[in-house]
Design brief:
Length: about 375
């Protein structure tokens, strides 16, 4: 019976946990990237038109009115000196990530975010907008229907807002106009950069690449630089693209640091596989204070000179709950989860206990609080 109860506790969920296998092989290209091959960020300023009265107010968003006037001037329409009162236009910022080695004519997704006091971008269309890089050059042109997942409805005495209706995306909404400087063949020494730096993982990547190189080319192809970087030596008769593709498919078992990550806003707790807790005794109690105010009307006797007054009566009730002392010890993730589940706490209580265990020096891992 005891064994069955322990098995059930071990399978319980701790703040949406699922215990993963101790070892898992992953491809090198999933945990490392070639140095110098990265995205570039571009942005631009534009207008979203066609809104159903949910756009910017010209009185509060002066830049929207100026943008409309400038756009109409370029189209041959003179509206200078006219007070615009349209609510179907919103000023927006358009952002996107420019992939490496992208060619003119390709398309990428863009994100559209409101700048003014527009209440929703639902149903709007982004008109032609230039997207600039940090060098001031135009790399893409964006235009299209804005897809918004949220909505906002306002009535005389109430309003309903779901998600974020003032931001949306345009799938394939930007057309690449300029090639990003630099080519794969122009990259100097080839270096792999680990997304999660670790000395053990860097050594394992080096050993896997060298074993492949000795077997296929007769010599080693890599050496570790530090916990973040592994230098590569490309064979002379092999192209860079084919070489990176070959080593990217090699599999290793990466090392992960013992770490506990806590998101105090959402109550999420993530515990790494190698986290251990030394034997500690834990108890947890909550203090609840309830304060209630009840008004009492004091009315004077008939024909008296007194006044009717309202006097509040305050009642205070304090209750402190406690729990039994439990022994928590975890030599692996499964036993640690089972030990914490024995206490029967909510995520907020688990966060407090983990922080206290770390302060006591019994948590053998890094504690990261977000």
């Amino acid at each position: 019976m005891t064994r069955r109860i322990f098995s059930l506790l071990a399978c319980c969920c701790l703040a949406c946990f699922s215990v993963a296998p101790a070892f898992a092989s992953v491809r090198i290209k999933d945990i490392a990237a070639l140095q110098g091959v990265r995205d570039n960020q571009i942005m631009g300023y534009g207008l979203v038109v066609g809104l159903q009265g949910t756009g910017d107010t010209m009185r509060n968003s002066v830049f929207t009115e100026q943008s409309i006037q400038s756009m109409l001037d370029r189209l041959g329409v003179n509206v200078r000196g006219i007070n615009l009162r349209t609510r179907n236009v919103a000023a927006v910022l358009v952002t996107a990530d420019l992939p490496p080695f992208v060619q003119p004519g390709s398309r990428i997704d863009v994100t559209v975010s409101s700048l003014g006091d527009a209440s929703s971008l639902l149903g709007g269309t982004l008109i032609l907008t230039s997207l600039l890089g940090v060098d001031g050059q135009t790399y893409a042109m964006a235009q299209g229907q804005v897809a918004v997942t949220g909505f906002a409805e306002t009535g005389p005495a109430a309003s309903v807002v779901q998600n974020v209706p003032t931001a949306g995306r345009i799938a394939n909404g930007a057309l690449i106009e300029r090639e990003v400087p630099g080519q794969l063949r122009s990259i100097g020494p080839l270096v792999l950069q680990l997304r999660n730096p670790d000395f053990g993982t860097a050594v394992k990547i080096t050993d896997a690449i060298n074993a492949f190189g000795v077997h296929k080319y007769g010599h080693e192809l890599a050496h570790e630089i530090d916990q973040r970087s592994v230098a590569l030596n490309k064979p002379a008769n092999l192209g860079t693209t084919r070489f990176i593709a070959q080593i990217g498919d090699l599999s290793i078992e990466p090392d992960t640091p013992a770490r506990v990550v806590i998101d105090s806003r959402s109550g999420t707790v993530v515990i790494g596989q190698d986290v251990q807790i030394s034997t500690v005794a834990v108890t947890q109690g909550n203090l609840t204070v309830r304060i209630s105010n009840a008004p009492v009307i004091s009315q004077p006797a008939p024909f008296s000179q007194g006044k009717t007054v309202v006097a509040p009566i305050t009642e205070i009730d304090a209750n402190q709950g406690g729990g039994p002392i439990s022994i928590v010890r975890g030599s692996n993730l499964r036993s640690l989860v089972a030990g914490l589940n024995q206490i029967g706490l909510k995520p907020d209580g688990i966060i407090s206990i983990l922080q206290a265990i770390k302060s006591a020096g019994a948590l053998q891992a890094d504690l990261v609080v977000q």
